[in-house]
Design goal:
6% helix, 2 helices, Jelly Rolls, mainly beta, 191 residues, globular, 6-stranded antiparallel sheet
């Protein structure tokens, strides 16, 4: 199921809820952490260009068909024009107490393919705006889980996508270190 989550936006009829941070990042390095409830169905944690996040989740009705294939099927090369450009968003996919990692992941896990690792108690996200890079960490051991490029040509927002219900606790980086509970879907209402 985790492998299918990357195509979930165009091939599934589950409820999808998007929470976008209310503060956009336009410079420097930013770090925050969250705890994802291990019983969450699927949660995507990451960042994205403010202008592209809403667009990404506004999928036309005819695209929601499981038969939809974003590839045109011909080899015109038109699909390859943006291969070198960083994507406008980067998400870590979490579900069933595990994290799905890209094949290019930095973490060497017990799994020989490096595809999934157990969900740590807390996930840290570090955005380096000038470098156009986002890194995801086990925020307890500070071990890097995954790193990738992201388009930082405009304001970047933290974003959380809940697919089929889920919950997380967002750790605000303030002096009192209070945690705010964010829940979506079948578990509870958004605080």
């Amino acid at each position: 199921m985790l492998f299918a989550a990357e195509r979930l936006m165009t091939s599934c009829h589950l409820s999808i809820d998007l929470v976008i941070g209310d503060v956009a990042i336009t410079q420097g390095k930013s770090y925050w952490a969250c705890c994802v409830d291990p019983s969450s169905y699927l949660v995507k944690v990451g960042v994205g260009l403010e202008s592209k996040l809403q667009e990404w989740f506004q999928v036309p009705q005819d695209v929601v068909s499981p038969r939809y294939d974003p590839d045109s099927g011909h080899d015109s090369g038109a699909e390859d024009t943006t291969v070198d450009a960083p994507p406008p968003y980067a998400f870590l996919t979490i579900g069933m107490g595990k994290i799905l990692l890209s094949h290019g992941s930095a973490l060497t896990s017990r799994d020989p393919n490096g595809c999934t690792v157990p969900l740590p108690p807390r996930i840290g996200i570090c955005l380096d705006y000038e470098q156009g890079k986002v890194s995801f960490y086990d925020a307890v051991s500070f071990r890097e889980l995954w790193e990738c490029g992201v388009d930082c040509s405009g304001p970047i927002c933290p974003a959380f996508c809940f697919i089929g219900g889920g919950a997380l606790h967002l750790q605000e980086l303030v002096a009192n270190k209070q945690e705010r509970k964010v829940t979506i879907g079948n578990l509870a209402k958004l605080d």
